[in-house]
Amino acid sequence: MIAAGARLWQQGWCPATSSNFSQRLGPDSCAVTVSGRDKGNLQPEDIMQVDLAGQALDGKKPSAETLLHTQLYRHDPEIGAVLHTHSMNATLVSTVAPSIVELSGLELLKAFAGNSSHQVTLRIPVFNNTQDIAALANDVETWMQQHGTGHAYLIRGHGLYTWGRDLPETLRHLEALEFLLEYYWHARPDTTEVVI
Ligand SMILES: CSCCC(=O)C(=O)COP(=O)(O)O
Ligand SMILES: [Zn+2]
Question: Which ipTM value was assigned to this complex?
């Protein structure tokens, strides 16, 4: 997670202490970044343990968005890592997109686990931003129960969440998403107005 933070910060995807990262530790807990830390220069003490209710197990202050990470680990036991970033492309797309961003026919869609052809559609739901992270986590869970887990979601005017079986797979998903969101921004098939 420390190396991942340096790599993602270098790309400009984690400005100004934004973003948070986590990795599953077992069936009932995960490691998550401490709130407010510089994600480009994480130290071992900037990573802590929480249970899947989001409660700190070591007295530190977990990411303000911990419940969005633990929702994913509770939802799917196969999820082993979660990355949340604040890139310009994700933020731009999140403000102009309809409620679901759809991407089809692009070779890079094969970067997502389970895809062996470009002839697939990646659906990325867009949730409205809120400071009520528990409510947002509930909205995400409800959406996933109705539509499936998928690979990612956007939060309007905020950023991107993605996940995978482990950290390398999640980094691959994130890099593919960044490419695809930049493509979407330039193509902007559904743009009508900015929505924040
Ligand atoms: C300065 S960014 C605002 C908070 C945020 O969106 C974020 O991703 C970082 O929050 P954390 O508590 O995980 O540091
Ligand atoms: Zn954030």
Answer: 0.99
